[in-house]
Amino acid sequence: GAGADNDLYINQAVVFIEDAIQYRSINHRVDSKSLWLYRWYYSRTCQWILSLTITVILALAFVEEPSSLTLTSDVRYRLPAWNPPCGLTESVELLCILVFLVDVSVKSYLIGWKEFWKNKWLMAYILTLIVSFADWIVSLSLFCKESVRIRRVLRPFFVLQNSSMMKKTLKSINSTLPEMASVLLLLAVHLSLFTMFAMLLFARTKDNQQDKEWVVYFRNLPDSLTSLLVLLTTANNPDVMIPAYSKNRAYSIFFILFTVLGNLFLMNLLTAIIYNQFRGYLLKSVQSSLFRRRLGIRAAFEVLSSLKETPASAQQSCVSAGALLQVLQKAEMDSHCKQAIVRSLKMCSCDQLSAAQFQKLFEELDKDAIKQHPPSPEYQSHFMQKMQFAFGHPYFGYLGNVVALANIISICVVLVMDADKQPSERDDFFLGAINCFFILYYLLEMLLKVLAMGLKRYLSYPSNRFDGLLTVILLILEIATFAVYGFPHPGWRPEFMGLLSLWDMVRLVNMLIVFRFLRIIPNMKFMALVVTTLLDLVKNLRAFAGILVVVFYAFAITGIMLFEGAVVPLGNTRRMSVCLANLKKSKLFLFLIFLIEAPFNIKKAVVLYFKEKKVISWHSAQAEVIYYLLYVLSVHLICRWAKIYFVAWWLISSVIWINLFVALLLENFIHKWDRRCQRESLSDIECQRTVELMFRDVLEEPTEEELMEKLHQHPHLHLCR
Amino acid sequence: GAGADNDLYINQAVVFIEDAIQYRSINHRVDSKSLWLYRWYYSRTCQWILSLTITVILALAFVEEPSSLTLTSDVRYRLPAWNPPCGLTESVELLCILVFLVDVSVKSYLIGWKEFWKNKWLMAYILTLIVSFADWIVSLSLFCKESVRIRRVLRPFFVLQNSSMMKKTLKSINSTLPEMASVLLLLAVHLSLFTMFAMLLFARTKDNQQDKEWVVYFRNLPDSLTSLLVLLTTANNPDVMIPAYSKNRAYSIFFILFTVLGNLFLMNLLTAIIYNQFRGYLLKSVQSSLFRRRLGIRAAFEVLSSLKETPASAQQSCVSAGALLQVLQKAEMDSHCKQAIVRSLKMCSCDQLSAAQFQKLFEELDKDAIKQHPPSPEYQSHFMQKMQFAFGHPYFGYLGNVVALANIISICVVLVMDADKQPSERDDFFLGAINCFFILYYLLEMLLKVLAMGLKRYLSYPSNRFDGLLTVILLILEIATFAVYGFPHPGWRPEFMGLLSLWDMVRLVNMLIVFRFLRIIPNMKFMALVVTTLLDLVKNLRAFAGILVVVFYAFAITGIMLFEGAVVPLGNTRRMSVCLANLKKSKLFLFLIFLIEAPFNIKKAVVLYFKEKKVISWHSAQAEVIYYLLYVLSVHLICRWAKIYFVAWWLISSVIWINLFVALLLENFIHKWDRRCQRESLSDIECQRTVELMFRDVLEEPTEEELMEKLHQHPHLHLCR
Question: Do you know which InterPro entries this protein is assigned to (chains A, B) (predicted)?
């Protein structure tokens, strides 16, 4: 009937408005049941469960065998890591897979059969689930003794497919790949030509004494290639050059030429190419978000205009204000925005809305959430008004900064004086007394500010919240210290009592005071600009960071699988340590080592080593020996068959990702810097700056024709006209 | 009389045209004698003498005491450096100072008294000369035994003041300094806050065994600051973090946070700021050059139009073609350009030229020097025509590339096979025979190409010139080898005869073959693009490179003065070697060490060391000991009072200069990349790409009003109207 139809239209409009708010695509089924399912799927609870599931399945790697996650990584003190019994992590995994199964079926159903076949991400999702499940069955049927677990490598895919931002970014990176490949090819040519030159230049001579160092760096093709590759990262910069230079100064020309061409020109060319590709990236992405929003609102208008109550006589299609109010009440959105839209709807006082009017109402969504600070209290007493003027004045805040600086300096002085003292000689009286005074001042400052501004206004400033919270924590710590150790007096010695020793307490207080000093940031213009740029960057970089996490995870799991059980008896350690010396310096190498350190089965290797060295008690060994051993082990792996793995790691994490980062930073910063003067006028009003707002004056509004064309292409919504 | 006046006008026009060609300012005296002096001063000979003088005075540092420039830097084999007698370098210096004195007086005279007082560079020039001369007198009166020579530090100034490009660039860098300073301040705050945190976090504990490594990195304030500063360069990246990580994995958060904030954010922010400042730099500089050119031409027009022979009746001022021809004959310019201008003047066939026509004639100067390759010879014989088609075809060139690649691969294979062989076991027969065959092929290729293209056309391609030259050199080397060592035969052993051993000959041939392989570059599109970008960059970077040389020189001389005689008896070597380990890894540090190594007076120190170690014969010592010693010595200096010196060096050379380089590369590359498609149409015509041409379509022509206003401001030229 007409009533049911009307209900459907209203529901469709509600969903389209919600799509517009969240920048979602509107290409989904629009019948009643699907709409209910759609709203349920995108409800906060459901999305939260999905995110939790993804987090859980990724976090499993930290408890699964062969993990060694303990507090300390020092093999001497480390307790054995907890090994869950077979079936525990597997059942958690099954649960996760089931949730993903529900996710993929709902998603596929909602976009419809036709669209499903076009969507490669969904197909890949289903494939991944099938492979994971098959692997899971194999795992369980072998009682968790299988050596290769493919499903672990596939896990990061679940992160990727759940974020539309990441998918978009990945597409963008993908389109840059051909040009990056060209530069990498150039780098490879550069490297190989210079390697041949090096081998010809630094050949073995009859005098073994003199070319000793050449044997180390240019003994054969793989060694030479590695030496120069590491030189490209500038990690072995002086070492590889010194022997040549000492023989003949002219040899340095070779190394300087190689470094200048490779490191200065080619590496920066990569930055230039990536920057050039990503220059328009942010703008394009914001533009497509805007299109989605306008499309959602237009779709809502179109379905509302086909409501039966609309007078058929009207030339133009239009929407009644009552229907819109009904939709607004049902739609989930920011209450601040909702109120603003209802208010302007009432102010307009027209019964029928045209498309343009309708669109205009929803422009409220694009606006900054301007936050007005609550007013200060008005005091009657003349004295109180004077107090309010004095302590509400910015100069009082500056005085607070000066006092904080004085506190920092006093801590610094004490640190310098105590640097060489034994812990038993230390006397905490001076610092205790000083800090006590300063914390009292901070408390006083806070109270006076609250008095002057009123509690609500005080709390409405983020800097005050930061300040107040730290002051309260400091006060509590100080009171706790006095309760346990008494008031400071000469010879106030650090002795252990309760949870923390006095020394630890004092250190904690000092660290908090240093941290509190950051409150000066908003007072310095340039610093504030830089900090807001950085915060913006963090927002815009979420997708990139997500992809980085995915790559990290995949590399770590691959590393675990590759290097499991690769520990071999120690042999020719000299060459290894050289190979190590080259590779361990590669910038982000260590971070990876942390992640794949687990499967090295250090203990076994250590026992082996001490058998060789005829040392029985391994508790008597020095830490150095163990580190040396750890290094030799990793080198063994690296130099054996994992050099390629690490080079790939270096290329992806260090070269490409860092260049992406630089490109985005340039894009963000230059845009911000140009608009700096404009912004300075807004002083008391704090804007929530988002990417959308940053580009607002450059964005193009989509035309009516584009919107309607897109609407008519909708696979499920069939508009009457 | 009128004739003399006319002569003066003609001469003025000639000088203005020459100014326009060289992009020089026209603000100089314009009377007859001054014009003669001006042309003499800017003649090739004079400018060449000036450049030579600057080179000589800079190069003096390599022979002056305390220099140690010898072939090898190894103290064991090094011959004592040549010490010129007192008065020799000093008299050369006096000569240079006299040349500079002439230079500054001519320059000051030419721009006139009024302008002189406004020109700070000239004043500084005179001041520098006075100080240098005073220092020279002191030097000579103390018989070269003085300890401080200020004039050496001042020498780079002569380079700066002689290049207008460098002065402009310096001004540009100067305007970026405030913003750079802000970021550096931020870096300093970041560093100091994290240092305090580190000292509080990694404090000394009672268990000496456990915090051993903390004593190394965070023992006191200067040590902590250094550790974190070096961490900012990522040089000690794994080392400083490992002990903390092994104690508690959570400590790594501190280091990761520090590196991400400092190295990833703040350092790249510096890149962004510098790029933002330099985005318009090239365009602006080209624009001002264009203005100078147009102004010079306009000035020439104005003086020519006041010639007496011009009919007074003409409404507009105009210039007779005859006068222009006279000027053109006298002016020094590229003959190609001159011919083109004369040709178009004759084609125009008008007797009187208006200002616009005059300006248009000289647009020839802005045009590319389009080089048409001479035609191939036309053969009568059918066979020869077929030959010409076959060997003139690009495929023949590709075949040559394939053969060159095959040669490279064969050399590579031999290198890999011979890598572990003793020099006495090596047999050069295989490589000798192979190379002989390949070189014959190269010769044949060259001859056939000359046959097909004719010698002139062959030589008109740079790639052919490169190819042919290397082929000829290879042929000569090969013939020389056969003459001395006979033809290759099994057991062709490397034995020493004549200048080079057979082994060295073969190596040289191989190196040339590898070098010859670079001929493939123009055949690969992307490679060709990158190479042309790099070449352009080198052109545009001359000014920056000049400034870098100036900075290098000043730093090296300051280093020599600071560290002279700073060698002290060796004491606590452990801490030094740690300090060294931190500092020696700083990227460009080593390059500087080369420059300031001289005054270390290594020998004295070595003797001292061996006395301490009770070793009498120092020829028996191993090379390692000496290197260790050299390191300890440098560390001594560094850790004593030169830390600041090296930090300044790092900031200027590594941080600021590299960022400038990246900014210019981005600017250049992005401009080039956008115009790539456009360029692909030009295949056979090679353009000489200059910065001016790159920006031509963006440049704005100066208006007539601007030009005339500037002309009326000329301090010496007083136009009639």
Answer: Ion_trans_dom (IPR005821), TPC2 (IPR028798), Volt_channel_dom_sf (IPR027359)
